[in-house]
Amino acid sequence: MIMSRIEAPRDEDTAATGDLVGRLLDGLPAEAVLTDPDVTASYANDMASFCPAGAPAVVVLPRTVEEVQHVMRTATALRVPVVPQGARTGLSGAANASDGCIVLSLTKMDRILEINPVDRVAVVEPGVVNATLSRAVGEHGLYYPPDPSSWEMCTIGGNIGTASGGLCCVKYGVTAEYVLGLDVVLADGRLMTTGRRTAKGVAGYDLTRLFVGSEGSLGIVVRAVLALRPKPPEQLVLAAEFSSAAAACDAVCRIMEGGHVPSLLELMDRTTVKAVNDLAHMGLPETTEALLLAAFDTTDPAADLAAVGALCEAAGATQVVPADDAAESELLLQARRLSLTALEAVKGTTMIDDVCVPRSRLGDMLEGIERIAEKYRLTIGVCAHAGDGNTHPTVCFDASDPDESRRARESFDEIMGLGLELGGTITGEHGVGVLKKEWLAREIGPVGLEMQRAVKQVFDPLGILNPGKLF
Amino acid sequence: MIMSRIEAPRDEDTAATGDLVGRLLDGLPAEAVLTDPDVTASYANDMASFCPAGAPAVVVLPRTVEEVQHVMRTATALRVPVVPQGARTGLSGAANASDGCIVLSLTKMDRILEINPVDRVAVVEPGVVNATLSRAVGEHGLYYPPDPSSWEMCTIGGNIGTASGGLCCVKYGVTAEYVLGLDVVLADGRLMTTGRRTAKGVAGYDLTRLFVGSEGSLGIVVRAVLALRPKPPEQLVLAAEFSSAAAACDAVCRIMEGGHVPSLLELMDRTTVKAVNDLAHMGLPETTEALLLAAFDTTDPAADLAAVGALCEAAGATQVVPADDAAESELLLQARRLSLTALEAVKGTTMIDDVCVPRSRLGDMLEGIERIAEKYRLTIGVCAHAGDGNTHPTVCFDASDPDESRRARESFDEIMGLGLELGGTITGEHGVGVLKKEWLAREIGPVGLEMQRAVKQVFDPLGILNPGKLF
């Protein structure tokens, strides 16, 4: 729908592309405008599978707000679609290029402008890498919680675009919770400031949160005020083995119902445990049907782990092993962090789903995924941010086998359908992008979809901002 | 602007009002439609000073979603403005009636539909009183943090409309942090569901947060999914006296910079302390220039209070008194809770401001307020959610004295101007309503204002939803 409102991409028209590049160079230094097709092609994709991508007409790498404004003014004048990008670690195709577009990479706007320990805020440009910020604030005794798996590479701008989560969310919430205010370049190049740098503020509609998770479809974030927390004590991890996934999910429910606040509560199913062992020979217990990792970053984590260990045993854990120290904790977490890489190695290709259900339905979700894996004769490994009910069912398949690929795609969709049936969402933290846009309507319904499209129209009347994503 | 798009109110036209009431009665029981002018007049105002209010044509008290839909369909058909109301405890005039409007009181939709300790959510209708919900979830070992001063009266729907804060915010954040999903009746009567009941979710734009704090100007919230937390231990309070407001603000900065996470960090200035003593003879130290209250609801609150007490002494506290138990803590909090009532008693009338600044600028804010009080020859008492930088400068004046009233109004505005100069916001938690709508543009700028108006237009093309508020 949105695509139809844009003039057809004119990348076949050299004169038009020349005009576009010429105009961009009026306000950007030459080194910030990339046109070599081999180079621009390398900006076509994020990390999602099964998501089509087009060939960009040009890639721009602005370093200032004014340069971004120039890019957007040019795009508006010429009606050229703009695809904003961070580190392209996304998993939904939201950063994939469309044919003839301007890829607007924010990676060169990577300055941390301020870290304020009294106000507990950081002010950053969008290209700052998550881990860079996390380490920088750590030096001030502060903590920026959001920690997507890609935290060593992904940018804050990308995190804001997709409202990223991570392992920390069960205690600390997602990126959205940490964005206080934004500077945004609108589609027509005007600069808008949203939100605040104060702890509280209710002046007008919350446009800040509207932009978080909007996948670059409403405007270009060029500056963000982020909330920080005091650095918590180092977390201590416990591992619990279960003879069934249902028992592990029961333990999760008991832990949360018991009022515990773990800093991490992760689940790896049998398939994932085996894949990690195969890849990294970590000596995880292959007889386990589900491995639960719980952590606490409290003042007395050993006491918290003891309480949670007892709940795991009550739920039928066959073994409960608390880590003695930070080093042992780190080893256990490494296994979890390797999960997706390990599952990728199983069959060469994976589709990572991101269905989040109410945590009371986690057991039903895992049981349903096992049924779907059987039905489609596929290997589907599940690792989950279990405390959030956020599962990452990962379909392992051979992309060179068309039938297996078809089954993979079908099982992926069926998993989303199951998530909705259980009162969940098609995406807990990875976003809609290209991958799930057909599913968005099913989740939010026709009225919601109509209002969302109307909001899009307000901020992007020409439909040039990341067209073909989300809707 | 919005008003001009509505047909002139026709309350002088008995036939038109008769038509309106008749149509409302087609879908509402007789007892849910109030037309006696004496009765409807009692619904004209919330608790704000200096905010004009009109005479409602009719007050409706629906009990079901379908009834709310009928009201909105009727309002759309007849182009009649609708003013949604909760308990009318607001302080910005956002719930004030306009002439000829339908007052849509949600107070009869007051059912708690679900409390789920595993998912840590509650599902409620908008008319549930904050304290009722807090107590109900408490019985399940859960905690709903938002605690505006009016918590014994105010409704969850009203809290959502104004994105209310309270004493808890320094640790637990504001209402917005606890709203996961909404059912909303749109201006034309259609029902829209936003958000989720899962811990995480990023499917589409965050319309939930757009509605939080929108003061009934985008739609009618008829159901909310709220996040809950485990009930923390009882908090323990410490009182610290300072010989200057600057020293107290310095203590606040040291506490927050030191990485402490108090569950409450409140400041009362000399004027407020004196007013509370005058009203309730609480024996607070009248020699103090500023009284700071800090609390912790941790597992070892005494240790936390000791650390914070030491920081207060380092900042120059003349006396530091930690409470020994919950009863002593409660006494100290009572003094804080009485502040506004006590300041009201000083001169008969008050204007309560709600300026929030970065907490590092709290000292500058208090100093500036003192300067403004002197300039306008007024008594301005300040109590503040100091940990948030959220001040409530309260102008005490005699409303029967036109000159003093004028000076009160001018000082009120000057305080907002000072807040903006210090990088703050004109409203930390009370909202814009009628009281501050002329100031909104100053805070968010012309581009932001234009986009906010355009968003309003999407949800309320006829301008019937709480017209004349916010913008």
Q: What radius of gyration of chain A results from the CA coordinates?
A: 23 Å
Biggest chain-to-chain interface with counts: A-B, 88 and 88 residues
Order of neighbouring strands in the sheet with most strands of chain A:
15-12-14-13-17-18-16
Report the major sheet of chain A: 7 strands, antiparallel
Q: Terminal Cα separation of chain A, in Å?
A: 8 Å
Q: Helix fraction of chain A?
A: 25-40%
Question: CATH homologous superfamily of the largest domain in chain A?
Answer: FAD-linked oxidases, C-terminal domain
Name of the top-level CATH class of the largest domain in chain A: Alpha Beta
**Could you say what the CATH topology of the largest domain in chain A is called?**
Vanillyl-alcohol Oxidase, Chain A, domain 3
Q: What do the pLDDT scores of chain A average to?
A: 95
Large-scale geometry of chain A: globular
Strand content of chain A: 15-25%
* Total domains of chain A: 3
